[in-house]
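Hi, here's the filled form for the chain we discussed.

Project: internal
Contact: R.S.
Residues: 214
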Amino acid sequence: MALTKRQREALDFISRFLAENEYSPSFEEIAEGLGLASIATVHKHLTSLEAKGYLKRGFNQSRALELTPQYFREQRMYRRESEARRPMRVETPLLGVIAAGRPVETFAHPETVSFPEFSGNRDVYALEVRGESMIEDHIVEGDYVLVEQTDRVRDGEIVVALVEGSETTLKRIYREAGDMVRLQPANQTMQPILVPARDVQIQGRVLAVHRRYA
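And the returned structure, exactly as it came back:
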């Protein structure tokens, strides 16, 4: 069944909240996220979404919202249709060099590399690895890392981090107490980079590693 604009916004908000927090939002959090003044309005939207088959609610529970299989089927269909409309890109842009060691400045690079399984994804790019700080994760100098452009990452993921606005590095990220970020190498001989969170900008997370032998 068709959704109103407000119902779609409520559904998208719940989906994002679940993905980021791994539990469902309260009525109050939905109201705040959608800029609604009334909890009754939230209840009305959720009742409509439940009636249309997109949402399931636990009885008399504040955090018991669940997206239904119908929602995920429609999302997959929407993604396939969107990808079908995109012009096919057969190569991935090689944007520069990323340090797997101490941070270095990256640079614009005119070349492309071919990774057919990622073709057509405009948010994926490649970087050539320099340094040895990630060797225990089997990422060595001369490898190419495929990076998804995003700032939404989880602790322990390998990320491309911009440090203090000018230098980039490839490390595993961990958020520490006191609003600090630890950029952890995968090399026992190297020390982590510990910096205030405000000085770190996450530019992407690593999806895959490609190695050429010739």
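Let me know if anything looks off before we file it.
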